[in-house]
Specification:
2 domains; 7-stranded parallel β-sheet; 5-stranded parallel β-sheet
Length: 329
């Protein structure tokens, strides 16, 4: 099977190459899949995509006409692929259903700790020669209530971390994690109750029609004044305009974001010499109590190894069996 890897980066290519061990015919491009770059897939039977790639209906039609029959995503999420159109065309799509959940969970914890203990501000003040502590007061996590939206593998890992800090855990998920309930003390409740009673809220749910803009003006208004809000899930789970308003009014004490709803045109690229035209993003990153990282929560050796292994396994399964256990139905 001849495969084209779109959106390949210096951080993931070595893991892909190690996983293939030369058994598949793979070519690489650092360009993202788009209407302008879809022609690169001509002559390939399979392609691999990252979160920045656009596999919408018209692009899928062109991919099919070029001979592409398999798409392996190097991610858990698949909201950038029109699955209905792919099924209609007969293009098989598989994802990476799980990789190291600790990577994202630990990154969420890092965002929380950095914001609460004013680590970034403290470092900036020290570099200026200002060693006063007046602006660096945080709070003990011990005994605080942490609300977790989504308790799959990543949410469960984050819950265990917070339990280790001595926090009370509230959670919301359409399907309660029975294994997690047996391991730590956790209470499942409604999103409304999580918002009203949590000192910290961390989002770990997938993006779907039910979760799109789940956090909006109404939900932010329910939260405790000064709550720390963490999102390492998907950017569009949060209405950015409403988050900005909540930050301006002081309802949100701090926000740690590894994702942003319009990140596709910003993250994973070098824009040092460019002026970003995204007005909302410019406002969001101007807040001193907002910490944004560029979708790097997954970026650990263990996670990258897992993603590469599963991606190559998907192609091998298609090549030898015609099907993969990770296909999206």
């Amino acid at each position: 099977m001849k495969i084209l890897m779109y959106s390949i980066y210096a951080f993931d290519k070595p893991f892909i190459e190690n996983a293939t061990q030369g058994k598949l015919e793979i070519e690489y491009t650092n360009q993202s899949l788009s209407a302008e770059t879809v022609k690169l897939a001509e002559g390939f039977e399979g392609i691999s995509l990252f979160t920045t790639d656009d596999a919408s209906d018209i692009i899928l039609e062109k991919l099919y006409s070029f001979g592409v029959r398999y798409i392996a995503l190097r991610s858990v999420g698949y909201d950038n692929v029109d699955l209905k159109k792919a099924r209609a065309l007969g293009i098989k799509v598989a994802h990476v259903p799980a990789y190291s959940p600790y990577s994202v969970a630990e990154h969420a914890a890092a965002l929380l700790l950095a914001l609460n203990r004013k680590i970034i501000l403290g470092q900036k003040l020290m570099q200026m020669g200002d060693y006063r502590l007046n602006h660096l007061v945080g709070f003990d996590l011990y005994g605080k209530t942490v609300g977790i939206i989504g308790t799959g593998k990543i949410g469960a890992a984050f819950a265990k971390i917070m339990h280790g800090f001595g926090c009370q855990i509230l959670a919301n998920d359409p399907q309660e994690n029975t294994e997690l309930i047996q391991q730590i003390e956790i209470k499942y409740t409604t999103v409304k109750e999580v918002c009203k009673n949590s000192d910290v809220i961390s989002v770990h749910c997938p993006l779907n029609p039910e979760t799109k803009y789940m956090f909006n003006k109404k939900s932010f208004s329910l939260m405790k004044k000064g709550v720390i809000f963490i999102n390492t899930a998907r950017g569009t789970v949060v209405n950015t305009e409403d988050l900005i308003d909540a930050l301006k009014m002081g309802n949100i004490g701090a926000a740690g974001l590894d994702v942003y709803e319009k990140e596709r045109s910003i993250f994973f690229g070098n824009h040092i010499t460019e002026k970003l035209e995204d007005h909302l993003y410019t406002i969001l990153r101007s807040f001193p109590n907002v910490l944004i990282t560029g979708h790097q929560g997954f970026l650990t050796n263990e996670a990258l190894e897992g993603i590469a292994h599963t991606t190559i396994a998907n192609f091998n399964s298609w090549a030898y069996n015609g099907t993969s256990e990770n296909e999206l139905k």
